[in-house]
Write a structure and sequence with these properties.
95 residues; mainly alpha; Arc Repressor Mutant, subunit A
Length: 95
């Protein structure tokens, strides 16, 4: 499906159209964030942190439906770009 056409609407499912819209939204964000060296996925993490005061990787995973490994890699890249600073929680009992 290249583009939505009213005459082919009956052949499309809502899920397919929503998925396509999400992909196009990410492409637009990628284009606008490229001058800043940020991807759409990284932008989403920063926005969630700012808007919802999310401050743990586990909370970010829940908000964005990502696994912990993907989130760790994402946070590593954002930290390398000096867009965030990670601090160990005082409540974290791990060494």
């Amino acid at each position: 499906m290249k583009h939505f056409q009213p005459d082919t609407f009956q052949n499309c499912t809502l899920g397919l159209l929503l998925g396509r819209a999400a992909l196009l939204k990410d492409r637009i964000i990628d284009t606008h964030m490229e001058p800043y060296g940020i991807t759409a996925a990284q932008f989403k993490v920063l926005i969630i942190m700012a808007q919802f005061a999310v401050d743990t990787p586990a909370e970010l995973c829940r908000h964005l439906s990502l696994d912990s490994g993907s989130m760790t890699r994402m946070l590593d890249r954002l930290e390398q770009k000096s867009l965030l600073i990670r601090q160990r929680s005082d409540a974290d009992r791990r060494q």
